[in-house]
Amino acid sequence: MPLVEVTHAPTVPESRLRELGSVLPHLVSLAVECPEEPYDGDLQPGDVEIRFRQLGPLDRSGLAVVIEIKSKWFASRAADRQERVDALHANISAATGLVDFGVYLSLPSAAWSQGD
């Protein structure tokens, strides 16, 4: 289950953030799909968690939007993580028109549990 945090400048319109929030679950799922966690296109509650945070007065960022993704480490994901994040960046840009943004993909050793 990927955790996604979107940090954005106050100048980014809410409509653009809503659009980003609507495309990210699918695009992130495609980007982190692997044999150990295949993506069937049928997202369920808890499959992708997205949090938005506006930059504060003491934050420093050179980009309008930074998208940080944490998804469980698997060797198959780690082997081509740069290609995955490059493709995700291109897909987000194509889907939303964003240009001034970055994507950070982290693959920590982790576990997840969710009740029914």
Describe this structure in words.
The chain has a four-stranded mixed beta sheet with strand order 2-1-3-4. The chain is of the alpha/beta class. Helix 1 (14-32) links the parallel strand 1 and strand 2. It contains three helices and four strands, in the order E-H-E-E-H-H-E.
What is the H/E order?
Answer: EHEEHHE
Helix share, percent: 25-40%
Strand content: 15-25%
Computed over alpha carbons, the radius of gyration is 14 Å
Sheet/helix structural class: alpha/beta
Please give the order of strands in the largest beta sheet: 2-1-3-4
Apparent shape: globular
**Mean pLDDT score:** 93
Give the tally of β-strands: 4
What profile does the largest beta sheet have? 4 strands, mixed
pLDDT below 50 for ≥5 consecutive residues: which ranges? Answer: none
Helical element count?
3
What gap, in angstroms, lies between the N and C termini?
15 Å
Q: What is the structure about, briefly put?
A:
The chain is α/β, with parallel strands linked by helices and 116 residues long.
Give me some keywords for this one.
116 residues; globular; alpha/beta; single chain; 3 helices
Please write out the topology.
Layout: E1 3-8, H1 14-32, E2 49-54, E3 65-70, H2 75-78, H3 81-96, E4 101-106
Parallel strand pairs: 1-2, 3-4
Antiparallel strand pairs: 1-3
